Amino acid sequence: MSLHFLHTLSGIAILLALGCKVLVHFYLDYIQEQSSGFNSVLLIPLQYLLPYKSPVEHKYQGLKYLCNSFFALACLSLILNIIFGVLVL
What we know:
It is a single chain. With 89 residues, this protein is mainly α. The protein has helices at residues 3-31, 39-43, 46-49, 61-88.
């Protein structure tokens, strides 16, 4: 595999991981009744791009873990993307 392909692949992984993270984060806020609707994603997007820190009921711990795992995957993909980008130069 070429470095260009790996750079592109890691960029796609960033977008997919962050997209999934935002959806899970919004869903967790929605079921916990902490969200003011989809407008909250548009008006305050930064809170949805950070790790999920709010306490959740025991039955939603798995979703919280999944949300934070997507965040970790996005961070790892970003680091790899930067490394591959530098190596391409």
